[in-house]
Amino acid sequence: MKFRLTATVAASAILLGLAAPAFAAHAFDVAAAPAPAVQAAQGVTVPPLGFTRRVLPNGLEVYSARDANTSNVTVQVWYKVGSKDDPSGRSGFAHLFEHLMFKATRNLPSESFDRLTEDVGGGNNAFTADDVTAYHETIPANHLQRLLFAEADRMGSLVVDEPTFISERDVVKEEYRQRILASPYGRLFGLFVPETIYQDSPYRRPGIGSIQELEASSLDDVRRFHATYYRPDNAYLIVAGNFDQAQLDRWVDQYFAPLKNPSTPIPANTVVEPEPTGPKSVTFYAPNVPLPAVVVAWPTVKYADPDRAALEVLDGVLSTGESSRLYRALVYDKQIANSIGSSPDFAQQAGNLTAYAIMADGHDADEGIAALNEEIARLRDQPISAAELAEAQNELVASALRSRETVEDRAQALGFSLINTGGAAAADQGVAQIQAVTVADVQRVARKYLTPQRQSTITYLAADAAHPPSVQKMNVDAPVKVADLAPAGEPVALLPEGQRAALPQAGPDVAPATPVVADFRLDNGLRVLVAPTQGLPLVSARLNLKAGSANDPSGKAGVAALTAALLTQGTTTRSAPEIATQIEQLGAAVGAGAGVDFANVYANAPANAFPQTVALMADLVKHPAFAAEELERQQAQTLDGLRVALSQPGAIAGQTVGRVIYGDAPYGSPGSGTLQTVPTITPADVAAFHAARYRPSDATLVFSGDITPDAARALAQQTFGDWRASGAAPAAVADPAGQAQAPRIVVVNQPGAGQAAVVAAIRGVPRTDADYFPLLVGNTLLGGGFSSRLNQEIRIKRGLSYGAGSSLGARADAGVFTASTQTKNETADEVADLILAEIARLGSEPATQADLAPRRAVLIGGFGDSLETVDGLGSLVANLALYDLPMSDLADYAGRVRAVTPEQIETAFARHLPVNQASLVIVGDGSLFLDDLRAKHPNLEVIQLEDLNLGSGALK
Asked: Strand runs (DSSP E) across 824-907, as ranges?
């Protein structure tokens, strides 16, 4: 798996009844024999995708692959239209249209796709990229026919009216504010990087567009766009999962074959990006940028180019993991950057490679540019080592293996190949191409593409009085013009209910199977749980310990988090770089983290590398070094991460809620620490915490995946059998949630914030509370999923947010229930009212059975999805163990959810989550909403961001 070491910073990348015809046998085109299985360097087999292909007379290409080991099926339609096809003056149009495709069709009312997917235990989503707009649903297999009917109906007869168009356009504006304006680095990666890299290619425009050009679009534009691009001969239909092939073929023929293509051609869009004429160097400014950032970038190759594999390996050497060159040089050795990364972006017509650094506090952009250039020059001037090549290859192969765990994953791998190459072969050839890359290939592509003359250098700094915020480049020309689009034709309207084609009925249920979990203890008291599966050769391990942030010593917030982070930073026999190198050599993912109640050490690896991976994991747990210099590095990264977090409304609100609900009790303390506490933590603090809290008798080791109970027992004994605790066990923290606090209305004023974060919070329940399942189902009704009440009211009906949701937040002691969203500053008070009203409804009026049936399905479907991956299954088992719940709850989960009644939900919410005990936390530009909010809540507290004190329950 590609993972960039960004400490606590993640850079935003903006990247979502017809008659069956008769036709001749030659319309079926079965693909050539599947590609042979590829042997990875470690001996891991990456199986071929195994899809078959047929082509309908209307040009629709259909790919299918049956998998009887799952209870699900995925249906995906990939349209060959993306943001590069946005007409001139209409940037963001393909993405806007993606939103509209979830509305009504001739036979289906608006939001039907949520009813047909989420409400039966599945899910749906879509994405827009440079060259594609893809729609994907994963559902219980018995609902396949219904989804095929629905996908065909929206391909052929989408309904778009003025109110829907305006509402969804408003939603996209909120998405723009959230992704671009509210994120400290959203403008950099979403706007300024693509506009700098490309000269003529339409890839230089942001996929999300701009608020001005979204405003310029019209309803007629939308209809013409659909008529132009949403047609059978411009799409791929991909189906994977548990189905009967012959039946699938009949349904496809019934619903998709009658669809016609328009007579107008698809507009030509084949811009050839010219070679750079020389280097570029530009500086951009933005508000709320806590740390400088720099990017160096080069145009490279399109996806189908033979050099893509060598560039992927080069990227792996450059930034994959803590042994990568950028991490070692900028973060670990020089300590001038808080986060680094690189990204090879290969599209249909062109590609690029970017490398970035978000600087550490006290270090400037020039240092980052010089360091990045030094590392790029090394790639050009000196061959990489054979060990570096093997590490990058192993990591890429393991990533390919992990990306094929679910039917949805495998369908998406195929879809990207089809869009970028026009064929399926690349999906199966990619691993072999990676394995064929040589040391000389990496140096060759570095010399060919990553030259100073072809380089763009971008500096990104905080705006100030002398440097106002940089403005998004507007009026960028594009190959496609509005005039090139097909005529809209007669508008389609939703038929009256009695005239609509009947929606097919669901078939018999295909129930998800849960494995029998083996449960035993080693002589040292370590509990071991084993959940074996059949499928890909992947295994996961997770060790859970009672060592969460609630156990932080008084005045030392952040000890638990730093202890976990330091486990991978050196043992008594291995240095941090040696650990990072070994992880990548194994193609493994290994790490640790601390939550509120528990710490977790995890590992995931191909089956044949798993024993070595667990041996490494055990060494990290048993023999950490806690070297002073490593602690200093982690402290610096944590502090910079906190500075970035405290520039974002959502993150600020999340930190503030803990103090509002728990005051000065242990649960109220920020788990990551504060700017004041982190510098005070010493090596002795973390060593003492580890000695007291990392104990086999208080730990549970969970294995899941391609491993037998006997093999797991032997491996656990071999690696953890000699683990012994030092000293007496510490006393459990008494009452970590503390006394209930009075409700508060807190505004954290962040002038210039791109959006306002709005959170309603109530002290909740422990995970073991008897009302857990009624509250869980009720929370899902309120804010679990797209069709939840909060999202319906705030996003769908009013277009006030990109999304709204809620979390039950159960913990070992009283948890924290939250309902939250982000909205433009001007509507913060309105959104707060809507959230509180929906919480109140749950405790004052019973839901109907019709309300609850789909929400139960959401929970059961999500549970089934988790069972499809080794990490998901391991997490389910581990969570039961954390709260001392019986393993039988795994098999009983669906029944517990189905047994919840409307009356139980109303009673549980009224008892545990009464709205009159709700606190509000709003973070944003108070000048735009404070007057309206104060009129409703005269007792509100206003705290300026620079005065916010997260070390105190008073917040001041």
From this structure: none
